[in-house]
Design a protein that fits this description.
The chain is mostly helical. It is about 75% helix and about 0% strand. The protein is built from nine helices and no strands. α2 packs across α8 (about 175-195) and α7 (about 155-170) packs across α9.
Length: about 220
């Protein structure tokens, strides 16, 4: 039945995009892969936001980046590669819902661990801790949604990015107009790219965006920065 859904998705579009469009779509899909989004956000908070990491030395900032890369990028990626190596999933690209179940669970564990580690060290800004809680909630919500449809991980990632930047825009610490506009443009490119590559349909995309935004709102509310 899952294969029939994939065939239906591929046949649902009559537009055949040329090589330049597909190349641009692949570039966006890799450049703004959901595993990279937390890295982009921490870089923004460290080096663009005027007060989030005020007083942190350069060495400490590099250490924070290293922690983020290890826990939020490397470990989830290695998990997928190991799952493929032992035959638990069919493809590292997680093309069907079945392949996504264990990676969602593994990523959720790593995301919650990162949230716990940063939360327990009170020197780190609450806005970053709130984002991590939202990230964990997003992976959990996507796991549940995956039962019903192949929610777009890319849309969840950029949706969380939008939600987080929107929440930052409501604070008095930084003018977020242009960063928010930039993320909205990135979101449009990423979601369009996923459609061009016929990796998802509109329900997958919009569902992912809603999950990403709402879980950031929830993370912000429950962590109360």
């Amino acid at each position: 039945m899952e294969n029939n859904k994939e065939i239906s998705r591929e046949n649902s579009s009559t537009i055949n995009f040329g090589f330049p469009a597909k190349a641009f779509a692949y570039l966006n899909s890799y450049l703004f892969h959901p595993l990279f989004v937390p890295l982009y956000i921490i870089l923004f908070l460290l080096y663009v936001h005027p007060s989030a990491f005020t007083g942190f030395s350069d060495a400490t900032k590099v250490r924070v980046i290293f922690i983020v890369i290890i826990n939020l990028l490397f470990f989830p990626l290695i998990s997928v590669l190991l799952l493929k190596a032992v035959g638990f999933i069919d493809s590292i690209y997680l093309k069907n819902q079945k392949d996504r179940i264990i990676p969602y669970i593994a990523s959720g564990i790593f995301f919650f661990w990162a949230y716990h580690v940063f939360k327990e060290q009170t020197q780190y800004p609450e806005v970053w801790v709130s984002y991590l809680l939202g990230l964990f909630l997003a992976s959990s919500a996507a796991l549940i949604a995956n039962i019903y449809f192949k929610v777009s991980m890319h849309a969840v990632g950029v949706g969380g990015w939008i939600g987080f930047f929107y929440l930052l825009s409501n604070t008095q610490d930084v003018m977020m107009t242009w960063p928010l506009v930039a993320v909205l443009l990135i979101t449009g490119m990423v979601c369009t790219s996923r459609m061009i590559l016929k990796a998802h349909d509109a329900v997958d995309i919009y569902g992912g965006l809603v999950i990403g935004v709402l879980t950031q709102l929830a993370g912000w509310y429950f962590n109360a920065p």
